[in-house]
C-alpha cells in the first residue's frame, strides 16, 4: 500500500477512485504520536511471511480458498462442508488466519439460514482451540440451535478428518424473509473463486504507546455478502488482523477468542475507520477491543478479542 498523502485511493476494477480525505485521517497523519505502520510494521520473519500473509496476499496475490464444498441436510437445519484454506490464507506462517476461519463460519451460518430463511449476522463468537494448519482439509459442521422470534441461533465446529477440534463458533442472525438479496458475482466467497477478493484501501496507523491503532479500510465491492454490504466475515477478519497488529507492535500472540457484534450493515462504499485498543493484560492473556465506524463517528461493528501470548519457554 503506498503512502497516502492527501487522498484515499481505492481500486475499482482497473480505475482508481479518490475519496475525499476525512478530517480524522488528516489529523492522524499529522499527529506525531502515530506512525503509519501499513508497510513498516516490525515483522518477525520466523512467524509471519508477508508474501503469504492473508491481508498482504490480498494486496499482491489473490487470497483464495482452494476447496469449498457445502452439503445441506434435507431438514434445512445443518450443513457439512469441506474447506481447504491453502497457503494464501494464513496469518502466522502455515496457520490459517483466524479471520478466514471466522469468515467461513459466518458464511456457512448464512448457508444454514439460506436453506430456510435469509438474515444478517448480528453476533459472531469464535473460539480458536488449536491452530489449523493451512494444508488441512477442514470439515465444518453447522447446526441450527434454536429460534426465538426473528433471532436464529446457530453453532459450528471445525474439525479434521480424525475428529480433532480446531474451532468452535456460535452466532445469531436476524431473519428478514424468504428471499435473499445475494449476488454471487459480487459475493465474497464466490468472488474469491472468480474475481480476486481485495480490500481496496488498507492503511494502519499505530499509536506510539503501542497499545492502539487507527486504520482506514475501504472494503469495496469484492468483499460483500449481501449485495453492497460488507461480509461480516471480512469485517471480523480485519478486526482480528488489526488486533494482531496492535499486538505485534510489542509482542506476537494467537487469537483465542473473537467476539463480534454487528450493529449496522456496513456499505461497501463506506470508508471504515477502525480503532483497536489494548484493554488489559493478565499474565499471558491480552484483552483487546475495537470499533468500526464511518468518518462521521457512526458505529457499525464492535469487537473484542482475547489473545494468548506464547509460554515463556516458546
Ligand atoms: C507489513 C507486514 C505486516 C505483517 C503484520 C502481521 C500481523 C499479523 C496479524 C495476524 C493476526 C491473526 C491472528 C490469528 O488469527 S491467530 C490464528 C487463529 N488462532 C489460533 O489458531 C489459536 C488456536 N488456539 C491455540 O493455539 C490455543 O488454544 C492458545 C494458544 C490460544 C491457548 O493455548 P495455551 O495452551 O497456550 O494456553 P491455555 O490453554 O493454557 O490458556 C491460557 C489461558 O487462556 C484461557 N483461554 C484460552 N483460550 C480461551 C478462550 N477461547 N476463551 C477464553 N479463555 C481462553 C485459558 O482458560 C487460560 O486461562 P487461565 O487459566 O490462565 O486464567
UniProtKB/TrEMBL annotation:
Enzyme Commission numbers on file: 3.1.2.2
Catalytic activity: tetradecanoyl-CoA + H2O = tetradecanoate + CoA + H(+); hexadecanoyl-CoA + H2O = hexadecanoate + CoA + H(+); decanoyl-CoA + H2O = decanoate + CoA + H(+); (9Z)-octadecenoyl-CoA + H2O = (9Z)-octadecenoate + CoA + H(+)
Gene3D superfamilies per the UniProt record, alphabetical: Hotdog Thioesterase
Keywords for the protein's UniProt record, in alphabetical order: Apoptosis, Cell membrane, Cell projection, Cytoplasm, Fatty acid metabolism, Hydrolase, Lipid metabolism, Membrane, Mitochondrion, Mitochondrion inner membrane, Transit peptide
Biological process terms in GO annotation: fatty acid metabolic process
Family matches, as InterPro entries: HotDog_dom_sf (IPR029069), THEM4/THEM5_acyl-CoA_thioest (IPR052365), Thioestr_dom (IPR006683)
Protein's UniProt keywords contain Iron: no
Topology of this chain in the membrane: Peripheral membrane protein
Primary enzyme class: hydrolase
Thioesterase domain sequence ranges: 94-165, 228-298
GO cellular component, one term: ruffle membrane
Record's subcellular location: Cell projection, Ruffle membrane; Cytoplasm; Mitochondrion inner membrane; Mitochondrion intermembrane space
Pfam family, one: 4HBT
Molecular-function annotations in GO: hydrolase activity
Top-level taxonomic group: Eukaryota
Similarity annotation: Belongs to the THEM4/THEM5 thioesterase family.
PANTHER family according to UniProt: ACYL-COENZYME A THIOESTERASE THEM4
Name used for this protein in its record: Acyl-coenzyme A thioesterase THEM4
Amino acid at each position: 500500500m503506498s503512502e497516502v498523502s492527501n487522498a484515499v485511493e481505492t481500486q475499482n476494477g482497473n480505475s482508481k477512485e479518490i475519496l475525499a480525505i476525512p478530517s480524522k485521517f488528516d489529523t492522524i497523519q499529522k499527529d506525531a504520536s502515530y506512525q503509519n505502520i501499513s508497510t513498516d510494521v516490525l515483522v518477525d520473519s520466523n512467524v509471519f511471511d508477508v508474501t503469504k500473509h492473508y491481508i498482504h496476499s490480498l494486496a499482491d496475490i489473490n487470497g483464495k480458498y482452494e476447496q469449498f464444498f457445502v452439503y445441506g441436510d434435507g431438514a434445512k437445519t445443518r450443513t457439512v462442508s469441506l474447506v481447504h484454506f491453502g497457503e494464501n490464507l494464513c496469518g502466522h506462517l502455515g496457520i490459517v488466519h483466524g479471520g478466514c476461519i471466522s469468515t467461513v463460519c459466518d458464511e456457512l451460518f448464512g448457508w444454514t439460514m439460506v436453506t430456510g430463511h435469509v438474515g444478517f449476522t448480528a453476533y459472531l463468537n469464535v473460539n480458536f482451540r488449536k491452530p489449523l494448519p493451512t494444508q488441512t482439509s477442514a470439515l465444518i459442521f453447522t447446526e441450527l440451535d434454536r429460534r426465538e422470534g426473528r433471532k436464529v441461533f446457530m453453532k459450528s465446529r471445525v474439525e479434521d478428518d480424525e475428529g480433532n477440534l480446531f474451532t468452535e463458533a456460535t452466532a445469531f442472525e436476524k431473519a428478514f424473509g424468504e428471499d435473499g438479496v445475494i449476488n454471487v458475482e459480487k459475493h465474497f466467497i464466490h468472488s474469491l473463486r472468480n474475481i480476486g477478493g481485495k480490500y481496496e484501501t488498507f492503511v494502519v496507523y499505530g499509536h506510539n504507546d503501542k497499545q492502539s491503532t487507527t486504520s482506514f479500510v475501504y472494503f469495496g465491492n469484492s468483499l460483500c455478502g449481501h449485495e453492497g454490504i460488507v461480509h461480516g466475515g471480512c469485517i471480523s477478519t480485519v478486526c482480528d488482523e488489526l488486533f494482531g497488529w496492535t499486538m505485534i507492535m510489542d509482542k506476537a500472540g494467537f487469537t483465542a477468542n473473537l467476539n463480534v457484534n454487528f450493529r449496522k450493515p456496513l456499505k461497501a462504499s463506506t470508508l471504515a475507520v477502525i480503532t483497536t485498543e489494548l484493554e488489559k493484560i493478565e499474565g499471558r492473556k491480552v484483552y483487546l477491543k475495537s470499533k468500526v465506524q464511518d468518518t462521521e463517528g457512526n458505529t457499525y461493528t464492535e469487537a473484542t478479542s482475547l489473545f494468548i501470548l506464547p509460554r515463556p519457554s516458546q
